[in-house]
Each structure stands twice: as structure tokens, then as C-alpha cells.
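Open question from group meeting: does this chain pack into something compact, or does most of it stay loose? Before anyone orders reagents, we agreed to write out a predicted structure and look at it together. Recording both the input and the output here so the notebook holds the full record.
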Amino acid sequence: MKKTTQFSFLFAAMVAIAVSTTSCQQAAKEPAKPDLAAIRTEIQALEDAYAAGLKAKDANAVVAYYADDAVSMVNNAPAASGRDALLKMAQDDIARDTTNTTVTIEVVDIFAGGDLVVETGKATYKDPDGNVTKTGKYMSLFEKRDGKYVCIRDIYNDDKK
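C-alpha cells returned:
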């Protein structure tokens, strides 16, 4: 074989290896797309458990929604930071409900990337007769820890009456 043919063959092989390696590296860098339907189902289950905790007047069930280092920024109140403050917030909410209000919490949007999920949603409060007494909206930031999502930040405010 002539030297130019050997060189051309060697050059073509090196180009093929370089292209192949670059393609593999680029494919490895692209993150997998999150399964938004599955995440929505998991987050809605967390919201349902939160609402059930309020209905059962179980502050510990409410606080299970949050990470121990979470911060909750609710309507017309200082931010509650950490488990003890979150527990007190839940206890105060439960104590204020003297009419056995039920709340329905609905996931509106989910945005996910890596171990973080941002959720927006709406809340509807009803009296025992089913009359809507209050509505509001919220945004929550979840982080996957130990295989499950927990809320690390949330903010809520009531709609104008």
C-alpha cells in the first residue's frame, strides 16, 4: 500500500473515532426528560395528604409535606422556617378552623429539572355545607430527597374576596 493511501485510511479512521466519541459525549450530556405525568401524580398525592391532614386536624400529617429545613411563606404572616415553626404554623391553622372547613388543593402546573420540581396550584376552601368560603393560589418548590419529593419552599396567598 502506498503511503498516501495508508495516511488517508488512518486519517479517515481517526475522524470516524473522533466523531463517534463526540456524539457519545454529547448524548451522555443530555439529561433525560422528566416524566411530568408521573411527577404530577406524586405531587398531587402530597397535596391530597396535606389537605387530609388539615381535615383530620393532624398537624404532624400536614408537616410531613415539608423537608425539615423548609420555609413556608403564607398569606399575611411571617415566614415559617424549619420543622418547629412549620408545626406551629399547622397547629395555628388547625386551631383557627372552628367551622370544619375542608380544602381541596389542585396542581395546576409542574416544571421539573434534575431533583427539583416547581408546582403551581390553587386551593379551594369549603364550609361543611359545601359553600366556597375562600380560594387562593400557591407555588411550591420540591426537592427529591431519599427517593421522594418534599417541599423545601412554598408561598401562598388568598384571592381577593
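Observations to bring back to the group:
The two ends are 88 Å apart (CA to CA).
The longest helix spans residues 3-29.
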